[in-house]
Amino acid sequence: MQLRADGLEPHLAKGLGRCYTVFGDEPLLVQEAVDRIRVAARAAGFTERSVFSVERGFDWSVLLGANQSMSLFGDRQLIELRIPTGKPGKEGGEALRTLVATDNPDSMLLITLPRLDAATQKAAWFSALAERGVSVRIDAVERAHLPNWIAQRLATQGQKFAAGEEGRRALQFIAEKIEGNLLAAHQEIQKLGLLYPSGVLSFEQVQDAVLNVARYDVFKLNEAMLAGDVSRLARMIDGLRGEGEAAVLVLWAVVEEIRMLLRVKRGVAAGKPVATLLRENRVWGPRERLVGPAVARLSEAVLERGLSLAARLDRQVKGLSGAVPGNKLSEPPANPWDGLFELAMTVALDGRR
Questions:
Q1: Residue 166 belongs to what domain range?
Q2: Same domain flag for 133 and 150
Q3: Whole-angstrom Cα distance, residue 257 to residue 117?
Q4: What is the CATH number of the domain that holds 200?
Q5: E strands along 97-179, which residues?
Q6: 342 plus 223 within the same structural domain
Q7: What is the pTM of this model?
Q8: DSSP secondary structure string, 65-93?
Q9: Is 353 a member of any domain?
Q10: Mean pLDDT in runs of 10 for the chain (353 residues)?
Q11: d(CA 23, CA 335)
């Protein structure tokens, strides 16, 4: 059985399974799911707890032995297994299949994994965990859903924003300040609960209390570029620069996106369905909704111009001259980050800069 995070609470209310596998790349949400399972396990009598972390040279026989051992005091035990890499290896995979197939009513298994790709989720060991136990997939909170997520969190501590424009403005303000950093967002929301009483919060209160704790993701930059969200794009480039991200990595991510757009653009012109082109170019998640409109509004000339600028920036970030010999107009901005901003804006603004 596979559940999403919002389906865990109703499931636990009906009774416990024997094995739970929680996987995802949002530390806050993974930790909250694991905590809920722990509380339910303790309430069901699993009062003893053993924790194992899989590292190089991990002895899987110790884990199998723990599952079969009886507590000195006769307590039921919760066995927690953390696999930070998400790759148990051949020996570990076999041990997990043996473990989940073992019938021991006095033992419960809780496994924590990072985000898993499609191939890993089809592996025999993970399929065994999902079939014989409960797997809980923790999805990232997308940028568009952050305001609602924040509002729900505030509601649990008895706070909310006024209806209308002021409330939307306040939620948007928080979302911008905590983008990509849910753990910090959780802390900021808790801080609002400590600073102000239950009831309606004003924009001024939020502005005074919430810090800028955003953590920017180079791959989320492409979403802002595809959507033509200029203010977010500028904020993210400044943030990546301030966090010390390598300019060459940001350039690579932007160029790959431009190349993908050009391939899809040419494929559409050749009569291929957009859905097929998205699959062929491995476009998933939120980007699926953004690529179609971006392809429709961007011309091949704009995308080719972007690649031309990218080629000059590539030389520049590698310490070479970014200019084309004999063409003074081809000189990119002196600072590579200014060039990256110009490149991203070429796509975001359809070349209208």
A1: 143-209
A2: no
A3: 21
A4: 1.10.8.60
A5: 107-113, 134-138, 159-161
A6: yes
A7: 0.66
A8: HHHHPPPTT---EEEEEE-TTS--HHHHH
A9: no
A10: 86 89 90 93 88 87 75 73 90 88 84 89 90 89 87 92 87 82 86 90 84 73 87 86 85 91 92 89 81 90 90 81 50 81 87 57
A11: 40
